[in-house]
Amino acid sequence: MEKKLEKILKNYVKDECNIISTLQDVQEILGYIPEEAINFLSKKLDIPASRLFGIITFYSQFHLKPRGENIITICRGTACHVNGSERLINRLLIELEIPPGGDTTDDLRFTAEKVNCVGTCSMAPVVIINKRVHGEMTTDKLIKEIKILKGKR
Amino acid sequence: MVTLKIDGMKVTVRKLSTVLDAAKKLDIPIPTLCHHPELSPFGGCRLCIVEVQGMARPATACTTIAKEGMIVTTTSPYLEKLRKTILELLLSDHPNDCMVCERAGDCTLQELAYFYNIRENRFVGEKRPFIKKDENPFVERSMEKCILCGQCVRVCDEIQGVGAIDFAYKGFNTRVCASYEKDLNCEFCGQCVAVCPTGALTGKMWAHKGRQKDIEQVDTVCPYCGCGCNLTLHVRRNEIIRVSSKKDTINEGWLCMKGRFGYGFINSDERLTKPLIRTAPKKHSADSGQWTNPPNNPPTPPLAKGGEGGFERGGNGGVDSSLLTPHSSLFREVSWEEALNFVAKRLGEIKERYGADSIGGLSSARCTNEENYLFQKFMRAVIGTNNVDNCVRYCHSSTFAGLASVFGSGAMTNSVPEIENHDVIFVIGSNTTETHPIIGLKMKKAVKNGAELIIADPRRIELVRFAKIWLQHRPGTDVALLNSIMHVIVKEDLIDKKFIEERTEGFESFKQSLAEYTPEEGERITGVPKEDIIKVALLYGNAVRPGIYYTMGITQHSHGTENVYAIANLALMTGNLGRESTGVNPLRGQNNVQGATDMGCIPDFYPGYQKVNIPGIKQKFEMAWGVKLSDKVGLTATEIINAAFKGKLKASYIMGENPVLSDPDVNHTIKALGKLDFLVVQDIFMTETAELADVVLPAACFAEKDGTFTNTARRIQRVRKAVEPPGEAKEDSWIIMELANLFGYKMRYNYIGEVFHEAGKAWPAIAGITYGRIEKIGLQWPCPTLDHPGTLYLFKGGFPRGKAAFSTIRYRPSEELPDNEYPFLLSTGRQLFQYHTGSMTRKIDAINKVSPEAYIEIHPDDAKQLGVNDGDTVKVSSRRGSIDIKVLISERPLKGMTFIPFHFKEAAANVLTSSVLDPIARIPELKVCAVKIEPIHQI
Question: Which of B28, B33, B113, B493 meets the CB 3.0–4.6 Å disulfide criterion with B118?
Answer without folding.
Answer: B113
